[in-house]
Amino acid sequence: MRRTRALWRLARTVLHGVHGVLVVLLLFPRLNTAGRRARVAWWSAKTLRLLGLRLQVQGAFRPGAKLLVANHVSWVDIMAIHAVCPEARFVSKADVQHWPLVNRLVTGGGTLYIERERPRDAVRVVHQMAEALRAGDTVAVFPESTTGDGHTLLPFHANLLQAAIATGTPIQPLALRFSDARHAVSPAARFDGDITLKQSFWRLACGEGVVVRLWVLGAQSTSHADRRALAERLRGLVAAKLAESAEAAHGVQTAEWAV
User: Fold this and answer.
1) What are the C-alpha distances in Å from 57 to residues 51, 94, 135, 176, 195?
2) More confident site: 97 or 83
3) Which of 77-86, 114-123, 247-256 is predicted least confidently?
């Protein structure tokens, strides 16, 4: 039964992905900004539901231009954030442009791509981010630069934060955690190491009662900030929230979060 349910979830999710591509290609050119954002939020939330994931959100996004920074667990992180903040323009690794179906959808959401193997490309992306922030956009980055194992936070890289500092734009940190009935950190969501996108799809579809928890923390000023010190402060805020939530859920600390 579990395998049959997982196959059913995958089939419906793939069809939903195809529908999303058609919306981007055929409908987006005729929609205004509000219409596009409504579609992004709807598509993202439904993707989570079709995979059997339940989204819980605490906190509120500040209005206007902002840079969102979040810990990175899975490719589903983008859907979780887009479900409640569809205006977010993500900075993503260039490899995503070659993922089937996903590439069309991610590009349609206004994603900025970065070639991480080329250190100088970060300068180009920082300029693009700064232009977007000055225009009043919301930009989102994963400063760990890769997905973690869900138990510990990797170092937060500071380079892309320069866009917010240069434009005086507030940064709003987000904390993400996937859990289920038996695990404070659900193994179904892991997308690190050698786990492929296909394997990740299957693990998520096989998940039992997986909940995506998203905490929207208070906005942080970037005025006269040192970007490395700012990166450490943001990492500490995210780590503290994840540790606090783990302790609250089980009465003891069941997952270690490096500060």
Assistant:
1) 18, 29, 27, 10, 27
2) 83
3) 247-256
What is the rounded distance in angstroms from the CA atom of residue 56 to the CA atom of residue 35? 24
Inter-residue contact 70 to 90 (CB < 8 Å):
no
pTM: 0.90
* Beta pairing, strands 171-179 & 211-216: antiparallel
Provide the CATH number for the domain around residue 69.
3.40.1010.10
Residue 122's CB is within 10 A of a number of other CB atoms, namely 18
Give which of 102, 89, 103 is closest to 37, Cα–Cα: 89
| Rounded CA separation 256/242 (Å) | 9
Report d(CA 169, CA 198) in Å as an integer: 37
Where does the pLDDT of residue 259 fall: very low under 50, low under 70, confident under 90, or very high at 90 and above? very low
State whether residue 178 is helix, strand or coil: strand
In a domain, 190, yes or no: yes
End-to-end distance of the chain based on CA atoms, in angstroms?
41
- The region that residue 209 occupies, defined by phi over 0 for left and psi between -120 and 50 for alpha, beta otherwise, is left
Burial of 92 (0-12, 13-18, 19+ CB in 10 A): buried
- Only one residue has tokens 């991610």, namely 106
Residue 256 lies in a domain: no
Q: Three-class SS of residue 55?
A: strand
Residues in a beta bridge with 55: 212
Q: Does 214 map to a domain?
A: yes
Q: Give the count of domains, the chain.
A: 1
Q: What is the pLDDT of residue 102?
A: 66
Q: Which of 28-37, 81-90, 93-102, 203-212 is the least confident region?
A: 93-102
